[in-house]
Design goal:
With about 325 residues, the chain is α/β, with parallel strands linked by helices. The chain is built from twelve helices and 15 strands. Helices cover about 40% and strands about 25% of the residues. It binds adenosine-5'-triphosphate.
Length: about 325
């Protein structure tokens, strides 16, 4: 659905995008992640045909964003990070206005606007003036606006920024519905946990470059050097630790609260082999499992990131997740 080839954008001499090669399959929810200034908005603006790249090419649904702008705009819905609303319109009028802009037949504009208000859970606000809506409601209205012409692809730039935890949850619910409708969604954020549970794949940007790309599990594996295992034995943890330290693919082993934490250099097959060996040695293994990597640590490792921002955002995202009950 989206493909870019060596896409570059310079603002004056500043390289905001450096040879970006992206590939996003149809029907995917793609999380575009990176710290402030990484180049996410620049990429999205180019894909939305609103900004010219300095060099390179980009296609949306097989259409060239530079030469087939009008056709591209027909199949995409773009929601910028900041957008204005016409304050003397009601929510319903606002959507009807945009439907008219897209040349949608007068007879069906109201029907579409009402359906969209329901989709974004704003049906009770149909007659409310848009400037009186809360930020979360405005964001959802903005999403409805991006959907009036039933686009195949949605490009959403930081749609959840500035929303309180409750509004974020509501926004996420709408995104789940869009995914069920089979839309392709590209959504940016600098908060990985916010997107990780929602996205089929993610791309991590850092200083204009794509530094990791794939499913959350793939990316974790890409940056993880080997794996960390937690082994609990019935007795003799010290002896087992020493035994493990001498095993070829074990990088290190230490004891933590009765458990042996083992770093191994290898994949699942190495993990299986190690378990077989312990059992063959008649070591009384009670449990043997991989310790999963914390998603924020993965992000920080990739981007060499800004811990302060991440810690703050993690608190928000955690509050958000706990709010889902
Ligand atoms: N119009 C512009 N003129 C000059 N520099 C710009 C312009 N727009 C963006 N930049 C610079 O390009 C870089 C990439 O910006 P961009 O907005 O694409 O990043 P981003 O990943 O979307 O960040 P954020 O999360 O803060 O929106 C930044 O260093 C930014 O300062």
């Amino acid at each position: 659905m989206i493909r870019t080839e060596n896409l570059c954008k310079h603002y004056g001499k500043f390289p905001a995008l450096k040879n970006l090669n992206l590939h996003i399959e149809k029907g995917t929810v793609f999380g575009f992640i990176g710290p402030n200034g990484a180049g996410k908005s620049t990429t999205m603006l180019i894909l939305a045909t609103l900004l010219k790249p300095t060099s390179g090419r980009a296609w949306v649904g097989g259409l060239d964003v530079m030469n087939q702008g009008e056709e591209v705009r027909r199949i995409i819905g773009y929601m910028p990070d900041f957008f204005g609303v016409y304050d003397n319109l009601t929510a319903l009028e606002y959507l009807e206005f945009y439907a008219a802009c897209y040349g949608i037949d007068k007879q069906i504009r109201r029907k579409i606007a009402l359906e969209l208000l329901e989709l974004v859970n704003l049906q009770d606000k149909r007659d409310a003036f848009v400037d009186g809506l809360s930020r979360g409601m405005k964001q959802r209205l903005g999403l409805a606006r991006a959907l009036v012409h039933d686009p195949e692809l949605l490009i959403l730039d930081e749609p959840a920024s500035g929303l309180d935890p409750r509004a974020r949850i509501e926004f996420r619910e709408v995104l789940k519905e869009l995914r069920e409708m089979g839309k392709t969604v590209m959504i940016s954020s600098h908060i990985l946990p916010e997107l990780a549970s929602l996205c089929d794949s993610i791309g991590v940007m850092e200083q204009g470059e794509l530094v990791a790309n794939g499913s959350v599990a793939d990316i974790t594996a890409q940056i993880q050097q080997g794996r960390t295992l937690e082994v609990r034995v019935l007795h003799g943890a010290d002896t087992v630790k020493q035994y493990l330290e001498k095993t070829a693919y074990v990088l290190s082993a230490h004891i933590e609260e009765n458990k042996i934490i083992v770093k191994v250099n290898g994949d699942e097959s190495v993990q299986a082999e190690l378990l077989q060996e312990l059992v063959a040695q008649k070591i009384p293994v009670v449990s043997f499992s991989e310790i999963s990597v914390n998603i924020e640590d993965v992000f920080l490792q990739i981007t060499g990131g800004n811990r302060e921002v991440m810690e703050h955002e993690t608190v928000v995202a955690t509050m958000d997740q706990s709010g889902t009950g």
